[in-house]
Amino acid sequence: MLDAATPRAAHSTAWEWLSTRRQILTWWAGSRALVFGTALALELAGRHYGLLGPKIFHRPLGLLGAWDGQWYVEVATRGYLLLPGRQSDPAFFPLYPIAVKLLGATGMPTLPAGILISNVGFLAALLALDAVGRAYLPAADARRAAVLAAVFPLGYVFSMVYPESLLLGLGLLAVVAAQRDRWFLAALLAAFATLARPEGIFFALPIAQIAFERRALRGGALAAVLAAPTALLSFPLYLGWALGDPYA
Amino acid sequence: MSRARALLGPARALVVACAATLALGTGAFILQAAAIGRPSAQDVLAGRAVRALLHYRTMWSVERIGSRPAVHVVCRQVFAPALFGGGRQRRIVVARGDGARLSEQRGLVWSSLQMLEPPALRSAQFALAGCPRLLGAKLAIRLTARRGLRAFGVRADGVPAYDLRFDVRGTRFDYFASRAGLIPLAVRVRADGLRAFSDLGERRDTGA
After folding, report:
1. Which of B89, B87, B49 lies closest to B182 in space, CA to CA?
2. CB-CB: which of B12, B24, B137 is closest to A219?
3. Which helix (H) or strand (E) holds A136?
């Protein structure tokens, strides 16, 4: 009796969890459809010049992999190389290219892999934003904040081959983990967020605030606060090893 | 006893935090090293050659094109009035001993070379003159894409050198730099109906 009831209860809880966040899922899907639709419309419209030159549109949805996206794909496929006095790729942090590379190992081309990571990462970020908000606001307000983030006008970058969605998702999940006293998980997520972009270091501040509020004088809490600066430090150390110049 | 426990608590937290932070930092480093790795020795060498070229503003050379007499050439990088708009911009000026002059500014090329010259020679003239910025740009484009650039250990002018070889639209370029200090030594250009070689002599100075 118990065996039969438990999966049903879990299923019902998951369904309930999803249905309370249906609005977020809907706005995420709608706003992403708008971004994809706009990218395709620009591709079909022709007249490609300037920043939207023909090089960008040589493959479907190429616009979503344009500009910095090309550098991230470059790092994912060929690794870092320093060219002093010229634009070169050590300016781009490593986690996103690593994720693209790992997904690419399944046989998926780099552009779809990057787009998939960014969009799934953005959904995770919206759900995490809702979870963070629920700790401080009524559920309806937290949900509204997540919906507004989904339709934020510059939010198209969260669908591009850029690490912004990964940064936001991992950083907010780190805060959620800290709110739930899962300090080592928070440390890991904050470190990953910082390896996606250096701005991830700022997630150490809300984590420190949560630790301070809870008087959490524990090793895990301290590690969660120090995780982001440590991850940030690991990148120049890696550059020093790989390129012979930690300031590359 | 309780006082000792009170002191031990923060100390234990500190030890745990340090151990966890160290593990995270090490893990982050290993993740990057394992997943991305480091560039090949050939790419690093070419990157260093590009860096070394940045030190030069003026390059003298003696060019030998096929069976023609040798010509002295100087390539200078200067700041000059912008072709469009105000201000000053970098300009590359090549003056040849046979009276021909070439200049480049923001991708626009002006040349007094005879139109009867082989097209490969006209397009290779800046590289043949050893113009550091343009030669560096040719190397950098191939390096960024990690293709079309090969490095060999050779002897040039009797000194151990590297030969950095790349192709541009049917024209093969070899840029020779000394192993010690990556000092520019020579450029060789080969294409259909064209065999050209220039001995380079550099001077580090100020300018563009």
Report:
1. B49
2. B12
3. none
Question: How many angstroms separate the Cα of A92 from the Cα of each of A46, A196, B36?
Answer: 30, 9, 13
Render pLDDT for A101-115 as a digit per residue (tens, 0 to 9): 999 999 999 999 999
B41 touches chain A (CB under 8 A): no
- Sign of torsion over alpha carbons B205, B164, A74, A47: positive
Q: What is the DSSP letter of A55?
A: T
Residue A73 CA to residue A114 CA, distance in Å, equals 8
CA–CA distance from B153 to each of A83, A104, B144, B159 (Å)?
Answer: 21, 35, 22, 11
For B123-181, the pLDDT digits (tens) are 788 899 999 988 988 888 888 877 788 888 998 878 899 999 999 888 999 999 999 98
Q: Report the distance separating Cα B58 and Cα B92, nearest Å.
A: 10
How many residues can be counted in chain A?
A: 248
Looking at the DSSP bridge assignments, the partners of residue B197 are B64, B188
The reply to whether residue B39 touches residue A88, judged by beta carbons under 8 angstroms, is no
What is the b/e burial string over A96-120, where b = at least 16 CB atoms within 10 angstroms of the residue's CB? bbbbbbebbeeeeebbbbbbebbbe
